[in-house]
Queue: 2 jobs
Job 1
Amino acid sequence: MNLIALLVGLIVERLATRFFHWRRMRWMDRIIDAGFRMVEGFANWPALIPVILLALLLASPVFIVTFALGDRLLGFPYMFLAIVVLFFSLGPKDIAEDVDEYCAALQAGDDEAVEQRAKALVEGDVPTDALERIHCVESAVFVQANNRLFAIIFWFVALGPLGPLGAWAYRVTDLIRRRAVFNAGRDDVEHGNSARVRDAAVLLHSWLAWIPARLTAIGYAIAGHFDGAIGAWRHAQDPAPTSTSEASEMLLARVGVGALALHEEEDESLCERGVRGASAANKLVFRLLFIWAFVISALTLYGWSV
């Protein structure tokens, strides 16, 4: 059932673009903020403990429903639940859609739109230099592919019968991380607790992203230029990462760019270079998605045959 649910979920994720705004789940921000306020009551505790409790609380409804359904009606209610949970766990936005909007802004020469689309992919400020921004966006595509897609698939498959819980738990930690980073950037001066919560939320999310990030990096090497990707993996990052989250993101970025192995072309404008690089990065991610689907299908069928 997990294989069928995964394949259907990926197809729905590609086709149901008009419903992507449902996945932003802004209503959960109030619940997360309420949880953050509760953290202030545990000032003597490490912030990681109440953040973990908040994540468990938000993930518990999916666990309860998954456990309650079991194998009822030959597992079809479970499969429906898995498809729905996958739809809301993936994203929140489709990478291909973000890349298409970024490329369209480049071709239209709309600098403001280009900056907005680039920030959406990078999840932060982007360089003012056009070429540096192009490289930054290409790296961000590989990082976001793990966060929005491959890490969810990994935990969905890894937890077997509790696959929906794995996918949703990862998305919950990402929602908490995003909100904590936003709050810390907005009112860190007024609320010293915000930075403490942000660091705990980022750390929790990085733990769940660590294994999928390495598997995704290996996948980039297989789906792209192998020698370039392995060479980038072995190359020591300078400056050295300061956290687990930063180490995973740097690894994904440099291995992805190495696997891309783009060569500069003569008489190519910055607009053409930006479109070519972002499109190539998106195609590499899509190839890796097909590889993951094939491997997961083969492992599942082998398991059935045994």
Job 2
Amino acid sequence: MKFRPCIDLHNGQVKQIVGSSLADGQEPETNFVSDRSPAWFAELYRADGLTGGHVIKLGPNNDAAARAALAAWPGGLQVGGGITAENAESWLEAGAAQVIVTSYIFQNGRIDEERLERLLSTVGPERLVLDLSCRKKDGQYHVVTDRWQTFTETGVEAGSLAELSKSCCEFLVHGVDVEGKQQGMDEELIQLLAEHSPIPCVYAGGVRSFEDLEKLNEAGNGRIDVTVGSALDLFGGTLPYRDVVEYCHNSSK
């Protein structure tokens, strides 16, 4: 289980927010606002040899901050938020290892095969991460788009994971209903991903303690990597960043 660090950007600042509070026209519920630059976090992750972390642009006014982070750790971070077939290549040229995409490939709640093919022809599956962040509806997990507010028809289950795995190198999955709340993980979702994802998968949402990390490692059979946000001392929480890095490093040996 690898630790995948994050740099969440909102209005150009590094923040930790409650994912389910994202909505157009209103300020999200915010847990933490850093006085350090995005590049500072990227340099820290670089110094610790942490690859595969993600820079997420939450809304507009984040491009300059994202580019500064990528420049500080070229080839070490992924970038997501507003990625399209038209701009994906420019983000790779800016230093992103991969681009992360959700909303662009969904139209009217369905996967837009034409857009997906256009994206693949631009960057290739080895440079594409699909964000399948999801919420539960009628007893089933569904991918959510548009700042996690719109349910799609795409379920997160064995069939869809198998099919979508042909188009990307890994999945990033936020358990949206527990994201940013430090109230515990979505263990059912973790087990589902561990059992059915044929490619590497990164889970985020609700991790708050080393006990949670142990549960995730066990429930995920060591196959699921982890992102920790609001609970980290880097972001105003109590979980020591340095200890999390060491724990995940030792668990992946």
